[in-house]
Each structure stands twice: as C-alpha cells, then as structure tokens.
Input
Amino acid sequence: MKNHHQIKDGWFFEICPMWPGMGFSLQIEKVLYSGESRFQKIDVYQTRHHGKMLTLDGIIQLTESDEFAYQEMLAHVPLFAHPNPENVLVIGGGDGGILREVCRHDCVKDVDFCEIDEEVIRVSRQFLPTLACGFDDSRINIHIGDGNAFVLGKKKQYDVIIVDSSDPIGPGDVLFKKPFYEGLKAALKPGGIVATQGESIFLHKEWVIHLAKITKELFIKQGYSCIMVPTYPGGNISICLGSLGPELNKPGRQIPDQLQEQLRYYSPEIHEASFILPHFAKKMLEDI
Ligand code: SAM
Output
C-alpha cells in the first residue's frame, strides 16, 4: 500500500510521483480517522482553514473548502449537455459528492453507483455528511465492486456515465485504460455522454493526451473541460468527455432557477468557458 504524504509540525505534505518535484501542504489540526481497507489507506483530517480533508494513500481527494467546484462540474457539465438524462451511472466517487449533484436533476430517474471500496463510503458517511448526503436519494442503487467489471456486458443502458476516479496509481488504474472506455461506450444509449476525471493539463500532459486520444477514437464528439480547484495539485483538474451525439461545450437545456441557486461553481457561462483552454493545451489536444 503506497503512502504519498508526510506530516511534520502540524502540516500535511502531499508528495506524489505523479507530480514530481512538487509538494502541496495544508495546515492540519488533527487526524479524525486513519485506517486501511483492502484497497487503500484512508485518512480524514481536520485542517486549520479548509474544513475536513479526505485522503486515499496520502493523496488529497477533497477538502470541504472547495469540493463543490469539482463535484458540480463533473456532474453538471455532462448532465446539462444531455437533453434528457434519465439513467445515470456513477463509477468511483465513494465520498458521495457526485451523487449529491446528480440527484439535483429531477429528470434523472435511476442512478447506478459502483464504488470498489465500501470503506470509503462508510468513512464518508461518518465524517463527511455534507458529501455523503448524496447516498440518501431513493433513486440510487449501490454496487460494491470494480467499475471496469461492472461496466462489462452492460449494453445501451445509460444516458450519462460519470467516472469519479482516484489517480491511476492505485485501484483507479484500470479506469484509465482503453478497454474500460470501450465498455463505457457500449453501456451508453444512443446520444449518451461519458465524463471522466481527466487529471491536470499542466501536470499530467501524457495522461491528458492518452485520454483525449482514446475518446477521439471512440466517440463522435470529444472535449476537455478545465476546473479550478485550489487543493488539487497545481490548483486545477479536468474532465475528459466523449459524446455519442450532443454538443459537449454548451448546455443542451436550461438550468432551472431553483437549481442554479443551489450551486456555487456551475453556471451555463462557466460550462462554456471551461472548454476554452490555454493555448498550449488547445494545441496539445488539436495535434493528437
Ligand atoms: N477526483 C477525486 C480525486 O482524484 O481527488 C476522486 C475522489 S473519489 C474519493 C475516488 C474513488 O474512486 C475512491 O473512493 C476509490 O475507492 C474509487 N475507485 C478507485 N478505483 C476504482 C475502481 N476500479 N472501481 C470503482 N471505484 C474505484
């Protein structure tokens, strides 16, 4: 089991080979939980200024201060690009944050949720209720297991599939491979959309190119959307999207006023803006 962090003098340091020569640190007040599941080390901290923080194998998965940016964008960009998402699959995301956002959509009738590590769900329910409230909706069917295995054999079942995976250096590794994306495509209904955790355009160029290549090969439309998240490495993370029909880079339907009022990051404007990438990233993705 890997552990990509150190603690010294009240500071948590995240040091990971996926962002070499760089470390991110946050001041912590105490360790609220520390344990090991079959798959990974799970820790929850009370930070000094960023609320509670969940780490897996020492890598920051979320802090309460900015988790809304990631959860809202990974959920609402594909869900608003789709004209009528009724059947949704969420893979990973054991904290519950993506489910919380998906269930804000009244048109969603049914959500399959597949997380490999039951312990992440349990720990999140105990320590992160503002995210784990996502599990409370009766439309959700919880499956415990590997997302890749879950998708195999599913045919034309989902309007939108969201993959909220940890990085490709643990159990999430399989979710960054082409056969998994082939499975996702087969599991989508005609006109379906897939959205996956796409890493950082600054720090993970090889992964970004790898995922963009796969989605370009398999899908009719493909896009990369960039999100600002201060407590992720480099302060940013992206969504890799593939579509079997709808445009990705603008909402395909109107956001109800009462839903917009609940959100802090997503809006129709930021949906469109998130696909406008810095020149180097635009070129990097055009050239593949
Ligand atoms: N975007 C967040 C990040 O990387 O910081 C991800 C947060 S979410 C907690 C990631 C979840 O993916 C974890 O709960 C982990 O257990 C789950 N996961 C990893 N590999 C998986 C797999 N093969 N199948 C299903 N879930 C998986």
